[in-house]
Design a protein that fits this description.
alpha/beta, seven-stranded mixed β-sheet, five-stranded mixed β-sheet, 15 helices, 38% helix, globular
Length: 464
C-alpha cells in the first residue's frame, strides 16, 4: 500500500485521496467543523461549500454536505467554484462559515477541506485549533430526523463578477476598447470557467479569449503550481497566438501568474506588485504581505510614498496584518492579490481585472509594466527533513546565523544588504521551504542551494 498522507493543521485538512484522506476523515473533520459552527451560531447554521474540479471533488463534496446536514447545518452547495467565489458567497449569505474542497496547488491525487469563518476568511489559528480539538474529541453532532439541515444549490460566479465590475476603478469600456487577446490556462479546473466568464463581462469578444486547459475535468494538463517550469506549453501558446498576454491560475483560482506577449513568464512574485502599483494611483494606504515575498513591493511602495508591513506566511496571517494596519491592498508572492473592497482572500479574478485596467489606463503592454519594476530574482526550493522536528531544526539554523540580521517570526529569515533567504516549515506539506531572493538569478540559486545544504546538514546531524 502506498504511504498514507494526511495533514491536519490550523490551515485545513489536506491529504492524498484513498491514502490518508477518505470518507472517514472527511466525516470526522466535517463533523468537528459542524460542532464549531454550532458553537458560533447555535443549532440552525448555514454553511456554503464549493469545490475545484478535481476528480475526487464531487464525492468529497457530497460526503461533507451530508455530514453537515446530519448535524443540523443548512448547506448551500456552490458546486464548481473558485475559492474566492465561495468566500464572497459566505459573506453574501450571512453564513456562519464555508468549506472549499480543494488542495490548491497540490497534485491531482490530493484534496482538502479549506475552512472559512463567517467573514469569508480562512480560520484564525485559534479557530482552527478549536476545530482540531473537536475532531480529537470525536463527538457525534448528528441530530434527529426532524432537524436535519437542508441542502440547496446555487451558483455565485456572476455575483462575484458583478462585484468586481462595480468597483469604482474598474472601467469595462476602457478595457474593452484595448482589444486585448488573452490566453487563459485554467489547468482544467474552475479557473477555466471563471476567468473566461470574467473576460467576457469585461468586454472581450469570444475570439479574443484563447482557452487552454479550460475543460474542468480535474485532469491537470501540467503540474498545478503556476511556475515557469510547468508552463512551457502555455508560454508557447501565448507566443504562437500573438496574444497580448497569458493568464494562468491554480486549480482553485486564488493565485494568478502572468505571461507577457511573446511568451515570457512574468514572475508570480510581481502579481501583487503590479496590483499595488495600480491601486496606489487611486488610493493611498498601507500594503501587507508575507515574509517570503519579493522586496520589489517595498521599492514600488517607496515611489508612491506608502508603507509595507510583513506577516508570517499564510493567507490568514496576511489578512490579520492588513486588518491591523488598515491596508488598502495585500497579497502574497505566490500570485495572491487580496482586495478588502471585495473580501479578505486571495482572488485571481479581481487580480485579472486590476491588471487589465492598469494596462488600459497606462496604454502599455505587460512587458512595459515589467520593465518599469525593480529587478529581483527569486529561487523557491524545498527539501524533506525526515523525522526531524522542524522547529528544533529551525532553532538550530537561527543559532547558526545569530550574528546576522535574523527574523524568527516565521521560521528563519536572514536579511542581507542586497538579498534575503527565508527557511520555514510548510503548512501544507511534510517539507521545509527555502526561498531566496537576490539581484540575479545566479545569486538567488546559489543562496537557496547553500541554505538547502545547511538545512540538510542540520537534519542529518539532528537525526544521528
Amino acid at each position: 500500500m502506498s504511504k498514507r498522507i494526511l495533514i491536519a493543521s490550523i490551515s485545513g485538512i489536506r491529504g492524498v485521496f484513498g491514502a490518508g484522506l477518505g470518507p472517514r476523515e472527511l466525516v470526522e473533520y466535517a463533523a468537528a467543523y459542524a460542532l464549531w459552527c454550532r458553537e458560533q451560531q447555535g443549532s440552525r447554521s448555514l454553511v456554503v461549500i464549493g469545490r475545484d474540479a478535481r476528480t475526487t471533488g464531487d464525492i468529497c463534496s457530497r460526503i461533507v454536505a451530508g455530514t453537515l446536514s446530519a448535524a443540523g447545518i443548512d448547506v448551500i452547495d456552490a458546486g464548481l467554484s473558485s475559492t474566492p467565489t465561495v468566500e464572497m458567497a459566505v459573506i453574501k449569505e450571512g453564513a456562519v462559515g464555508g468549506i472549499v474542497l480543494s488542495a490548491s496547488h497540490n497534485p491531482g491525487e490530493w484534496n482538502a477541506l479549506k475552512l472559512l469563518n463567517g467573514a469569508g476568511e480562512f480560520l484564525s489559528p485559534d479557530e482552527g485549533a478549536r476545530v482540531l480539538a473537536l475532531a480529537a474529541d470525536g463527538l457525534d453532532p448528528t441530530v434527529g430526523f426532524e432537524t436535519i439541515g437542508k441542502i440547496e444549490e446555487s451558483d455565485y460566479l456572476q455575483y462575484h463578477i458583478d462585484q468586481i465590475l462595480a468597483l469604482p476603478f474598474i472601467d469595462r469600456g476602457a478595457i474593452a476598447a484595448r482589444g486585448f487577446r488573452v490566453v487563459v490556462d485554467g489547468i482544467n479546473s474552475v479557473g477555466g470557467i471563471a476567468i473566461p466568464a470574467l473576460l467576457a463581462r469585461l468586454g472581450l469578444a469570444e475570439e479574443q479569449i484563447i482557452r487552454l486547459n479550460c475543460d474542468p475535468t480535474g485532469l491537470f494538463a501540467h503540474p498545478a503550481e503556476p511556475l515557469p517550469a510547468n508552463l512551457t506549453e502555455t508560454m508557447r501558446a501565448v507566443a504562437d497566438s500573438g496574444a497580448d498576454l497569458g493568464i494562468v491560475v491554480d486549480p482553485d483560482a486564488d493565485r494568478l501568474a502572468l505571461i507577457e506577449g511573446g511568451g515570457r513568464y512574468m514572475s508570480e512574485e510581481l502579481t501583487q506588485v503590479v496590483a499595488a502599483d495600480f491601486m496606489w494611483r487611486f488610493r493611498p494606504g498601507p500594503f501587507a504581505t508575507n515574509l517570503s515575498s519579493s522586496r520589489a513591493i517595498e521599492d514600488v511602495a517607496a515611489r508612491h510614498g506608502q508603507k509595507v508591513y510583513r506577516s508570517a506566511v499564510g493567507e490568514i496571517n496576511v489578512v490579520r496584518k492588513m486588518q491591523e494596519v488598515g491596508a488598502v491592498l495585500g497579497g502574497e508572492g505566490n500570485g495572491g492579490v487580496i482586495l478588502p473592497d471585495l473580501h479578505y482572500g486571495r482572488d485571481a479574478l479581481v487580480g485579472t481585472a486590476m491588471l487589465l485596467q492598469h494596462l488600459a489606463n497606462e496604454r502599455c503592454s505587460l512587458t512595459d509594466v515589467r520593465e518599469g519594476l525593480p529587478v529581483y530574482h527569486i529561487a523557491k526550493k524545498k527539501t524533506a527533513i525526515g523525522a526531524v522536528d522542524p522547529d528544533v531544526l529551525l532553532a538550530s539554523l537561527a543559532t547558526a546565523h545569530e550574528a546576522e540580521r535574523v527574523d524568527t517570526t516565521d521560521g528563519v529569515k536572514i536579511d542581507m544588504e542586497s538579498s534575503w533567504v527565508h527557511v520555514r516549515r510548510s503548512n501544507t506539506e511534510p517539507i521545509v521551504r527555502v526561498y531566496a531572493e537576490a539581484p540575479s538569478a545566479h545569486e538567488a540559486e546559489e543562496l537557496g542551494e547553500r541554505l538547502v545544504g545547511e538545512v540538510n546538514g542540520l537534519a542529518a546531524s539532528l537525526d544521528s
